[in-house]
Write a structure and sequence with these properties.
By secondary structure, the chain is mostly helical. The protein has helices spanning 29-32, 36-51, 74-82, 99-102, 111-135, 144-168, 190-202, 224-236, 238-242, 255-268, 307-313, 321-326, 340-343, 361-364, 414-428, 433-446, 456-467, 473-479, 513-518; strands spanning 90-91, 171-173, 186-188, 291-295, 336-337, 357-358, 384-385, 409-413. It has 19 helices and 8 strands.
Length: 528
Amino acid sequence: MVSAAMLFTATSCVNDLNVRPIDPNIDMPEDVLNSVGAYQQLLAKCYGGLSVSSSLGPNGDPDISGVDGGFGQYMRALFYLNELPTDEASTCWNDQTIKSLHGLSWTNSDVFVTAMFSRLYYQIGICNEFIRRANLASDDLKGEEMNYMIAQARALRALSYWHAMDMFGNVPFSTEENSVGSTGPDQISRYDLYEWLIEEIAGENGFRSDLRPAASTEYGRTSQEFATMLLAKIYLNAEVYTSNDAEGRAPVTAWSECINECRSLLKSYPALEANYHGLFSADNHQFTNEIIFAVQSDAENIQTYGGSNFVIKSSLVAGNKDWADSLGVDDGWGGVVVTGKFLDRFDDKENDSRYLFTDGTDFTGEDKHDYYIINNSDFGSGMCALKFTNRNADGSRPTSGAAWPNTDYPIFRAADAYLMLAEAQIRNGSLEQDGRDAFNAVRARAGVSSISNITLDDIISERGRELYWENLRRQDLVRFNLLTTGSYLWDWKGGDLNGRSVDERYNIFPIPANEINSNSKLKQNPGY
C-alpha cells in the first residue's frame, strides 16, 4: 500500500505540493487528517503516483507488491503498452515478455500488461480514498479549498479510468461511494464507462467547474483545461469506446462535441510554443503556453527509473560519454529505437525540427545504427530518438541532475488539440478554416510547408511526427484501423521482419489472468 517519505518539490515550480505524503500504514487517517494541510499531503500522493513507484525513492520498495518499481512506474508502463506495439518504438531488450509488445502477441499473463493494469488501479484506489476521506472531513475543514482538492483527485482518477478504458475496455469499477469488498469490484462496460466519464467531467456535478483555469493554476496541477482536453480525447475516440457493446447499443460518434472542446482549448492556447525541442527539455515547466499537464521529474526529489529518465536513457548507447552529455545525463541504457517505417512518415526530414533522430554518427564518427530494424535484438538496428533531453531549452546544463533528469513528461499539449480539431472536422464531414489553420500552425512551428487539401492520412502522419513518444500512438492507430490490419505494416509488426497483420483482439489488452482468477465478477476480453 502507500509508503512514506517522498518530497515533491522544487524544479517543477510546485509550492502547495511541497509536502510529505501521509503513510496510512504508519498513521491512522482519522488521527492525522485534522487540517487542510494534512489533506494536501494526502493529495500529493495522488499526484506522486504518476511520477514514482515508491515514496522511498527509486530503489525503495514499490507501492505495488510484486510489480517491478522500474517498468511498473506509471509513465514507463504507459510507454510500454502504447508505444512499443506501434511503429514508433521497438526494443532490443529480451526482458521477460517484452518482445511480445512490439510483436503484438501478448497473452493474459503478460507481466508488462499486468504492471500497467496494477498501476492504474493503484492510482484509482488512492484517488478514491482521498475523495472518500475528504467527503468525511469535519465541517470546519470543508469549503472552497477542500472542494478544489476533491476536484483534483477526481480529475486524476478520471485520467486513469480513461487510460483503463482505452487499453482494457470493460474494466473493474469502483468510486469513493462503494466498498470494493472481498470479492472485488464490479465490471463496467466500456460504453458505460465512456458515459460515466463524460458526466464525471462535465455533467451537472462534474469536477471541471471546481477546477481553476490554467492561468491561475499552479504548474503540475490539473486545471479546467486539463478537464477539457481529457473530455476532447474521450469524444475523439467515442466510436472506438462504444463499439461492440454487449447490450447491442449503437456506437456513438461525437465529432461535434470534440470540435467544441478543441475550440475552447484553442482560445486558451491561441499560439504554440516556438521551441518544439524545449517542450521536452529539463526546464520544460516554463512552457505553460502549450503544456496543459505533465508528470513531474526532479533530479533531487522525484527520482524514478521510469518517466523521462527511461525515455532519455533507453535511447542512448551505453558507455558513450559524448552521446550521454548531449542529452545531459550520465549514461545510456541502450534499448529503444524507432522503426524505419515510422521515419518514412517524415516528408521533409531536412527542415522538420521534430526529426530528432540519430544513427550514432554524431557521436561516434561512423555508422552505428541502421535506418530499418533488421535485427530486433540488436540496439544498433534502428535509429535512436533524441526528442527528450535533460538539457535546458537553450542547450545549457541544469544546475542539478545527470544521474536523474529534471525533464517533466507531457501528458497533454495544446498542439494535440490543434490536430484533433482538424481530424474531428474532417470526420464530421467538412474541414473548416480554423481546423485547417490549426493543422498548418503545427506544421509551421516545425518549419515545414502547409497543406491545403488535408486528408485523414495527413492527420495520422502529422500526429506521429508531432506527438511521437507521448503515449498516444496505439490509440491513434486503433482509431484509424491501422494497428492490427495489413493496411499499414512496419518493421517487426506481428513478429515479422517486414511486418504482418495480426488478430484484431490486439486492439485491446486482456484483463490480467490474476485479476480474473481473484474476482469472479470479471469477464475476459474476447480472444484471450
